[in-house]
Backbone:
């Protein structure tokens, strides 16, 4: 899973990226500090995986992972090449989802490219630039689609009709995701505005600043059926620099039970409709990410295509059961291990062993 972080310059994207990835992206008080996208791979925190490693005495522990991409700041006119406009927009087309970082803090030492903090204005600027870029792209595709539709081929006609509906929405100032089309249907169009969005408010450090930011940003997110999360990039940077007990004590003093990374990943999973299943044994305990509602055979493909193609059955039990009973043998004895077929719908926390026919 790859998530792009977008926003105006100087809203704290690189600061957030560094906090999430413990990376060293440049973070300075001037626009376009980031020129090329910074990429960081982050392990998904999951206490269940550590418990499985303990139960099986696994030699290796392999968590699920997310790639975060810090995309350089967009400005008004980016769709027409302002700033480094089109170059930045091309990076966004490659990600699975977007974190739209919105500046909610007012700090005299950090310049605001628009002259002052105004979340609604800033959100509208970014969304307008994404929509204009999509509109230009769709207009180029429409002519070709219309010509193909004249052939009478059903698929070509459906593509043309779909592009026309997307064009109408964009021309009316609406993002493509408001059409509630499947991502599979619009994927060939390489749209920016149909990607799932999580609005993240970069607020001040005080609780009252956090609450105020949530009130303002949650309303904007609800209008688009988007996710919303408030955090302080400065605080998250300080948390990321600590480890172990020092980090736990600092978070406790702040009244935080989870880091911004944990909350952000949880929000991203919900936004994208993802769950986690596990494979576990003496060699390794491994967390895997799959779409909610995925059948067992498709989940097997996350491990290897050969396992998906040669799928026979899956031995499955819940993490909750092995956590309570302490061993796989005890799970078997209680009759809680099930043999499931290819159409079984995977559930979050399933521990699976896939039987398959090897290719000859």
Residues:
């Amino acid at each position: 899973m790859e998530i792009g972080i977008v926003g105006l310059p100087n809203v704290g994207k690189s600061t957030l990226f560094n906090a999430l990835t413990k990376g060293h992206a440049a973070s300075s008080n001037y626009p376009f500090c980031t020129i090329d996208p910074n990429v960081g791979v982050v392990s998904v925190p999951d206490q269940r995986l550590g418990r499985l490693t303990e139960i099986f005495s696994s030699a290796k522990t392999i968590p699920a992972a997310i790639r975060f991409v810090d995309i350089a700041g967009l400005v008004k006119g980016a769709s027409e090449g302002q700033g480094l406009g089109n170059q930045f927009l091309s990076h966004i087309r490659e990600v699975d989802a977007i974190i739209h970082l919105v500046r909610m803090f007012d700090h005299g030492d950090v310049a605001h490219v628009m002259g002052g903090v105004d979340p609604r204005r800033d959100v509208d600027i970014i969304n307008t630039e994404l929509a204009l870029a999509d509109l230009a792209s769709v207009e180029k595709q429409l002519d070709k689609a219309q010509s193909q539709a004249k052939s009478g081929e059903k698929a070509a006609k459906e593509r043309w009709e779909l592009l026309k509906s997307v064009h109408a929405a964009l021309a009316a100032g609406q993002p493509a995701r408001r059409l509630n089309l499947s991502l599979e249907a619009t994927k060939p169009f390489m749209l920016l505005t149909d990607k799932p969005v999580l609005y993240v408010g970069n607020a001040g450090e005080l609780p009252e600043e956090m609450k105020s930011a949530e009130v303002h940003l949650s309303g904007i997110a609800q209008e688009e059926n988007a996710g919303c999360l408030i955090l302080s990039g400065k605080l998250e940077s300080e948390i990321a620099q600590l480890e172990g007990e020092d980090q736990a004590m600092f978070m406790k003093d702040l009244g935080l039970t989870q880091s911004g990374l944990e909350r952000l990943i949880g929000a991203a999973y919900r936004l994208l409709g993802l769950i986690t299943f596990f494979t576990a044994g003496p060699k390794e305990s491994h967390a895997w990410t799959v779409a909610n509602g995925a059948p067992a055979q498709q989940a097997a493909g996350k491990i290897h295509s050969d396992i998906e193609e040669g799928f026979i059955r899956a031995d499955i039990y819940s993490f909750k059961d092995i956590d309570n009973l302490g061993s796989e043998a005890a799970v078997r004895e209680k009759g809680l291990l099930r043999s499931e077929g290819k159409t079984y719908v995977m559930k979050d926390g399933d521990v699976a062993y896939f039987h398959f026919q090897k290719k000859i």
Remarks:
- Confidence is low (pLDDT under 50) at residues 23-36, 81-85.
